[in-house]
Amino acid sequence: MNHLPQAWGRPRDDVYGAYDSSYLQNGGPTQHTQRPIVTGTSVVALKFKDGVVIAADNLASYGSLARFTDVKRLRKFAETSVVGFGGDVSDMQYLDRLLNSLDIQEAYGSSGHTLNAQNLHTYLSKVLYKRRSDFNPLWNQLLVAGLDGESKPFLAAADLLGTTFSSPSLATGYGAHLAQPLLRNVAPDEEAASKLSLEQALEAVKESMKVLFYRDARSMDKYSIAVITKDGIDLKENEQLEKQSWAFADQIRGYGTQVN
Amino acid sequence: MTSIGTGYDLSNSVFSPDGRNFQVEYAVKAVENGGTSIGIRCKDGVVLAVEKVISSKLLKAGANKRIATVDRHIGAVSSGLVPDGRHFVSHARDEAANWRSVYKTPITVKDLASRMGGYLQAYTLYSSVRPFGITAIVGGWDSELELPVDGQVGSGPISGAGGKVEGKTYGGPGLYMIEPSGMYWGYYGAATGKGRQTAKAELEKLDLAAGKLSLEDGVKEAARIIYVAHADNKDKEFELEMTWISNLDGPTKGRHEEVPKDILEEAERLAKKHLEGEEDDEETKDDDKDKMEE
Amino acid sequence: MSAMFSQNPLMNGPNYSFNQAPATASGGNTEHSFYPYTDNGGSTLAISGNDFTIIAGDTRSTSGYSINSRYSPKVFKIGGTTSSQDDANLVLSVVGFAADGEALKERLDAIVKMYRYQHGKPMSVKACAQRLSTILYGKRFFPYYVTAILGGLDEEGKGAVYSYDPVGSYEREQCRAAGAAASLIMPFLDNQVNFKNQYIPGSGEGHALQERENIPLPKDEVEDLVKDAFDSAVERHIEVGDGLQMLIITKAGIEEKYLPLKKD
What we know:
The structure holds three protein chains of three kinds.
Chain A: H1 13-16, E1 38-40, E2 43-47, E3 51-57, E4 60-62, E5 65-68, E6 74-77, E7 81-88, H2 89-108, H3 117-133, E8 140-147, E9 153-159, E10 164-166, E11 169-171, H4 174-178, H5 180-186, H6 190-193, H7 198-215, E12 222-229, E13 232-240
Antiparallel strand pairs in A: 1-4, 1-7, 2-3, 2-11, 3-12, 4-5, 6-7, 7-8, 8-9, 9-10, 12-13
Chain B: H1 22-32, E1 37-42, E2 45-53, E3 68-71, E4 74-80, H2 82-103, H3 109-122, E5 134-142, E6 172-178, E7 184-186, E8 189-192, H4 196-205, H5 215-230, E9 238-246, E10 256-258, H6 261-284, H7 290-293
Antiparallel strand pairs in B: 1-2, 1-8, 2-9, 3-4, 4-5, 5-6, 6-7, 9-10
Chain C: H1 2-6, E1 43-48, E2 53-58, E3 61-63, E4 66-69, E5 75-78, E6 90-96, H2 98-119, H3 125-138, E7 146-153, E8 159-164, E9 170-173, E10 175-179, H4 182-192, H5 219-236, E11 243-250, E12 253-260
Helix pairs in contact in C: 4-5
Protein name (chain A): Proteasome subunit beta
Pfam family, one (chain A): Proteasome
Function (chain A): Non-catalytic component of the proteasome.
């Protein structure tokens, strides 16, 4: 019999067979994220005269299940910028913690200078590109809203591949198909956006959220909306979609009781 | 010094027959020569202040900070060997960041003091290292609100398990002083460095235990105490550096920040006026007392 | 990794970025997995002249049928000493996967800057061209999915255009079109820049027919060619449009021009 310490308390090999330790080894190559699990849907944003309006609903879906209904997908950074996250929620939380530690490190210096939205967007897109290049992506589409180095409105997108672009209006996911055309109606170019008032921008974004709720099955009517100007961030996290009309519903043919 | 020639002072981690670790005591000597640092725990915040003796006229005024931000809500200052202070801060930042990554919540001042106490104590145990030549004062404000976990989504349960306990208060000011031995205590007012005796005497007069001193007044007191403590060391010029952490409703919103220039200057003005008043006091003792009335 | 190349739009299927067929596992089930590339559409074009080089690109960025942005430049000044790149002497265009394009641009820019500081002179186009090839080949087994074109003036002051494939194969050319509408623009360029299929009327029959003499084109004519090329590409390719960005390199420096293109 084996009296060595590593055998103490173990079932006897001659009676029970050798211990099957195969589960301890993770065979094969390292596994990385292959798909998002708990997800957030669209984020929409629009530049206006003095800043940016950005919105996203408060839902996190687990496949087609509306799993979490109180999820804040707009995240503040240093009271100067807002990042709106679409895609995987756990990756969003990771990035949020990353930004939090970045903010703390910024505070170490006494100058008080914090990164502006443009800097933040560059940082995030490099993180995302690095992770996609390691075949270990952070599964998000995100919009960064705030002001640039010259205190002009700034809005840009970055995604899990590290692709980046900027435009007077932006929308991720379904929003790119449903909301972006509406936003481009009010702000076809930078010049038009620079003439929009806050009220006009808010109205366009809220209307977009409504359209998305009508047509995106992974959306909900509770949402967060933020306005970023040089005076700071006005973030509301428990907004309710209002004045919806379902009058169009009985006009829709092809499903339900009216087949033709 | 009784230790000299006995041989018990030559190596760290060696006790003398009467139970002393001389290397630690020498480290304390290094602290006693450093510029005075103080911390005041007020009812709505904490003030940290340090007397920076100007070692060269070529140094840029206002540069070369001595009080550091450890985490958003915590600051640290030390007297003694400045590089040791820097290493202390560097490790404290690591501890604070590590705490966040493990517990998803900011470290409390108490926990940070505990971690740093443990760290300094370890430097008294081995012959290959020497103790820290600093005494550090760590101050901060633990949020009175239940802070969202970093990256938290949603607001959690409203009642039941995980719900809020009614009437229970959280957080508040924290002030700790950590010595080269690793010993640390929590204080209402802490002072270390060259002028610590004078500073402690002044701090005791404030009756901080009553918890009535406001942060605003604390700043003024801190400036005054540094000026008073410096009075014994008058021949050298110095610069006052001051930071504070208020509660969430206060001027810094729970963050550790430098005291704004205007408030600092006002506090210094009052401190100087106070000192002049004291000097006049001494002079007027034998002169006519009418002058005092002015 | 082989799946990566089967998705090369030039090799199969239409030239759209959404042509990302999910990899199929052996069981016939669709296997969802991470594919690290996408195509952001757009086209670039470079033509060198006797004493100038023009590099141009449209400014549309796409994902499938969607337009990401109407202004997302693909042509960059490289190796200047300021953030505005005013003193740059080289131009790089990248088209394909925009994130790789951005990464490649940043990397080349840093290298050319370092060359300038270490050698006390700007990098020549020839040296930069070789260096760019090395960078691209360095990622031979995980390529930058971009078609790059490098432009500048050579040691004699003549216009120089170097074109690349994604893994660093390169040559100096008179002109080159790249990207989504490359197959539309390149034949036009062959005909209009190198006078391919242009013969001197009545010069003979069959093989005796004489080709039109190749002469370098003046700058304003080349500019017009570029505009025409893009206007035509916009008509026939959905991923090209919005704006035309042109960088014109002469010994006087780099001039930038922006012209609107159709936004449909």
